[in-house]
Amino acid sequence: MAGGTQMLIDTLAKKLSPENIKLNTKITALKEVENELSVETSNGSNFKADKAIICIPPQLAGLQIKFSPDLPDNLTQILPTVQTWMSGALKFVLEYAAPFWRNNGYSGMLYSHAGIIMEMYDHTNFEENKFGFTGFLSGGASAYSQEVRKEFVLRQLAELLGKEILNPVSYSDKVWTDEFVLAGNQIIQRPHQNNGHPLLQQSYLNGKLYFSGTETATAFAGYMEGAVISAMKISDKF
Length: 238
Ligand SMILES: Cc1cc2nc3c(=O)[nH]c(=O)nc-3n(C[C@H](O)[C@H](O)[C@H](O)COP(=O)(O)OP(=O)(O)OC[C@H]3O[C@@H](n4cnc5c(N)ncnc54)[C@H](O)[C@@H]3O)c2cc1C
Fold this sequence. Notes:
This protein has helices at 6-14, 58-64, 73-78, 100-103, 146-161, 224-235, and strands spanning 27-33, 36-41, 46-49, 52-54, 66-68, 90-96, 110-111, 117-122, 131-137, 170-175, 209-211. Helices cover 23% and strands 23% of the residues. It starts with 5 loop residues before the first helix and ends with a helix. The chain has a 5-stranded antiparallel beta sheet with strand order 7-8-9-6-10, covered by helices on one side. Strands 3-2-1-5 form a 4-stranded mixed beta sheet. A hairpin with a 5-residue loop joins strand 7 and strand 8 (117-122). The chain contains 6 helices and 11 strands. Bound molecules: flavin-adenine dinucleotide (FAD). The site of flavin-adenine dinucleotide has 22 residues, from helix 2 and helix 6. Residues 26-27, 55-57, 60, 64, 85-86, 89, 91, 176, 180-181, 213-214, 222-227 line the site of flavin-adenine dinucleotide.
């Protein structure tokens, strides 16, 4: 995506007034109080709403938000089983001053069952003024420190692309298990398990509460495309 995927978020944010975006504000409770919803947050602030749309991974909603009255049992049982795409993945990024692999006739794409890197792509930007790779490491690598992961990544790539790989401008990686993705739980689930589930298409708390977000999408669930599809579907309801 030209400009990087952050551009998508920045462009959407510009269309809203800043006071309507609350950063670092985690929803902890949603209560039905007469004809309204009371929304509680981790920093103690409280909002009143006619309706609420939950756009966080359903697993997190089930684990982190206290609903009052309780949500129906069949929904409560489903929420922890809705797989969050790529949760638990280990993603790495390597940046180089020049695209030496391209100059040597390599695509920079890699699939491997041996070594720490399982999948890798040329991640040169659209403008072709930043060069590098991005990819995924084998799940077991989360047990290593970042320094060790970097060493294994460079060793594997040096065998394939030569010594120039050993001098990156930068290396970074991230284990996607934090509280905003997976709540720290490494549960093995089937990819896209229960994504787009019929129970996620219904409203709750007397028509005041809806679910949206990519895991609720009935097409391309789990991907950015699914997030857009689910947003369009829910906006049609209001
Ligand atoms: C490592 C990785 C690689 C991926 N690669 C691709 C790819 O190549 N292509 C692709 O299409 N998709 C990819 N995805 C999936 C893509 O990121 C998602 O489909 C997309 O971000 C979903 O958008 P969303 O708006 O539904 O939810 P999210 O982007 O998950 O947004 C949910 C937001 O809710 C916030 N939040 C969480 N808990 C709370 C709470 N209690 N209160 C308030 N806010 C909360 C989170 O901080 C987050 O900002 C990848 C995901 C990961 C993790």
